Amino acid sequence: MGESGGALMVSLSPLCRLSAFLAIALVTLGDLTPAQVALADATVAAHQQQQAHHRILDRAHHPRGISNKTISGVGEDVTCKHSTPYDTTPNVRFPMCTGQTDQDLKNGMSIINLISSRGYLPTCRIMQLMLWMAGTAHDNGMLAKETFVDIGANIGSCSVHMASLGFSVISAEPVPEHVRTIRGSISINPSFQIDLQHIGVSEREGNIKANFGHGARNWGATEFHEVGANETFETELHLRTLDQIIGTRRVSLMKVDCEGCEWAAILGAKRAFLHRRIQMIKIELVQPSYTAGNDTVSAQHILQHLHDRNFDLYVDHWNEQNLYFGKRGNDVMDIDRMFGSAKFKLSSDLRVLHDSARLILNNPINVTNFNQRAFMQKSTDIIAIERTLSDRMKRRFLQRHPVALVAPNTNSTR
To answer: From its phi and psi, is residue 409 left (phi > 0), alpha (psi between -120 and 50) or beta?
Structure first.
């Protein structure tokens, strides 16, 4: 579920807050290992004084004594049978589990092949860009690393991507095979702070009997259907609302990619929106309609709902056609240049980051005139940014004179 197409988690529709921060710098975007944290404190402070306008999303701080928490309900502790190296940045590499069985590899072939060919999942980098923008927009160049919520986690690519950057992660996924794979990544990366929840997401809590509908060779396109009382079913699934999932946490970023459950998910976040706990959302809107209980709405209705809850809306220009299918494995893309690439031996390019930020902010969505057919010709996802933060970003990236740029360091090491 999620990533390059989510799963319909249903249309029935506390971990420690890290005190680490996002510091914006020039050279590369990477995280420190636990052994480097003490050195990082002094290094980052000195770097901020010397190059105040060249800071970077950096420093993953993993507090000791906190273990991964799961409520998956899928078997006992697991290891991982199949894994691949994952390069969040040229300086941040870890093993990501890709399956507990040979069949898992076949089922997740499209996503797994993409990670293997580029070193990371491109859509996760767009969210990394959003977080970099948020950190850069703060006057002191810092943003608390709070919670990343992954609704429709699939095999957990974006969950582990953000965990490797020091974020506390809540990962919600209904497909048992995917849950076992994410648990495999947790088991081989014990410092990652991932609260894995084997659940469906809905506008109200409940329990259902359901069947899956999987996309051929891409279980990221999994759909989830509730069945009647006398029908054959594959699994029983517990449903939770976003308010239950988030609780009182403050969410830096939430991804919602669940093949039709988007409206149900949004409706279940009443308290989170009321108390402005969610700063940014990346949501896929490609379905012709969305259902929650007896309520069926259009994508435009969802956008209006978010707009009315204090979000500015923007087009995510890095659509699947460009990120996944429009390039060969050896083609260098701007998304490789943003935060650097181990495969192409690139360091982070600040100019590409600033240009990418302006590309987002210069293309706001007019909800009244929103045309989904025209939108889907160029994109699949919407970026929603809390209005106060959005205003800060626009002042930083659109109204100020460009900062002086220095060539990125190409001698980065792991």
So the answer is: beta
- The topology (CATH level 3) of 34-399 is Rossmann fold (3.40.50)
- CA distances (Å), origin 155, targets 23, 90, 129, 228, 230: 29, 22, 21, 28, 31
Q: How far apart are CA 229 and CA 208, in angstroms?
A: 9
pLDDT at residue 15 tops 80: no
What is the C-alpha to C-alpha distance for residues 54 and 354, in angstroms, rounded to an integer? Answer: 12
DSSP codes joined into one string, 295-318: EEE-HHHHHHHHHHTTEEEEEE--
Residue 232 predicted with pLDDT over 80: no
At residue 387, what are phi and psi to the nearest 5 degrees? -60, -40
- Which among 137, 224, 144 is positioned nearest to 178, based on CA atoms? 224
State both tokens at 178: 């995917």
Residue 28 near residue 127, CB atoms below 8 Å: no
Return d(Cα 98, Cα 104) in angstroms, integer.
7
Residues 6+ apart with CB under 8 A from 129: 338, 353, 356, 357
Q: What's the CA gap between 361 and 372, in Å, rounded?
A: 19
Report how far apart, in Å, the C-alpha atoms of 208 and of each of 72, 163, 172, 199, 380 are: 16, 30, 16, 11, 29
Q: What is the DSSP string of 187-201?
A: HH-TT--EEEE--EE
Q: Taking residues 69-78, report their average pLDDT.
A: 45
Q: The tokens 């088991």 sit on which residue?
A: 187
Instruction: Look at residues 185, 176, 201 and name the one whose alpha carbon lies nearest to residue 86.
Output: 185
Quote the pTM value.
Answer: 0.79
Q: Which amino acid is at 108?
A: G
Neighbours of 353 (CB within 10 A): 24
Residue 178: CB partners within 8 Å, gap ≥ 6?
1, 153, 154, 155, 156, 219
Phi first, then psi: what are they for 300, rounded to 5°? -60, -40
In whole angstroms, give the CA distance from residue 211 to residue 232: 8
How do strand 147-151 and strand 194-197 relate by DSSP bridges? unpaired
Cβ 412 vs Cβ 91: under 8 Å: yes
Torsion on CA atoms 321, 323, 327, 329, rounded to nearest 10: -140
For residue 264, the cross-strand partners are none
Q: Residue 29: pLDDT band by 50, 70, 90 thresholds? A: very low
